[in-house]
Amino acid sequence: MCYIKAEDIFPKEIMDLIWEYVEGKNIYIPKKEGNRKKWAETTNTRKEIKIRNEAIYEEYNNGIDKESLAKKYFLSRKSIDRIILQEKRK
């Protein structure tokens, strides 16, 4: 994340208002509600997790125990249980 100096983008009148509330502090200005993206919308992460979860479920159905799956995929046993339950419901 890069920072932009507020003084470089806001007019003096707005800077005077900002200084009344948060002088010398970092603030975060979120995107407008309509401009927000869903988690992993711009990457392949959702697809990769879907493929991983399907593989976990297939391996479980082929007899691999949950502890081995947890170690193989570096997940907790609880996460493996959750993934198997979700995949079973599909």
From TrEMBL:
Domain Mor transcription activator: residue ranges: 12-87
InterPro entries, alphabetized: c-mor_Regulatory_Protein (IPR052411), Mor_transcription_activator (IPR014875), YraL-like (IPR049739)
Domain of life of the source: Bacteria
NCBIfam families: CD3324_fam (NF040785)
Protein's name according to its UniProt entry: Mor transcription activator domain-containing protein
Lineage: Bacteria, Bacillati, Bacillota, Clostridia, Eubacteriales
